Amino acid sequence: MNQNSSKERLILAAIKIFSIHGYAGASTRMIAKEANINISSIAYYFSGKHGLYEASFEYIADKIKSEISKQGLNDRNLKNLETNEFIDIFSRMINFMLSDNISPYMANIILKEIMFPSTVFNTLYERFLKNAHETLTFFVSKFIAEPPSSELSILCAHTILSQVIGFKTHKEILLRRIGWGNYYDEEIKKISEVICNNTLAILSSYKQRKNT
Question: With bands split at pLDDT 50, 70 and 90, how would you rate the model's confidence at 1?
Fold first, then answer.
């Protein structure tokens, strides 16, 4: 069996088991059974349960970070980005985040780690959350003419980012309220339009305040 394939199967199985049972309730035996791989492979590849837990977050962070890079969302590119160009890229990132590329299991363990941070939260924050937050804050600050380090820029960016997270983590509520079967392409498009319109409204409101 391919080594990378075995490691990835264990990581994906771990993400599912940690999501359902939490760190304390998950066992290496449960993860090995889910991955259909010998339990000794966990110690071999990850040195145990905690190492596998860390590797799970590294896997998710790298997956999202790769997509951010692919879409050109970094500080250097944002310096000369027009608003409509940013919204177009942001919309594509929303589509990625709300699609099955980020599974409900991935979203759930991220949410649990944010709500109840462990030592692994540092990995998640440094490898993904910090960069995503700072990148969004950079564009927000440019639009509302505030320093990127200002509380207002950071709070606005956090509000915008929270919309995307909310639609991911509260998916089941929305499906039941509207009667959708799932987030398919058409549904994600509608959500993206709402988030992008909200984002423009938030930014325009603070820009107008700045100019008055």
Answer: very low
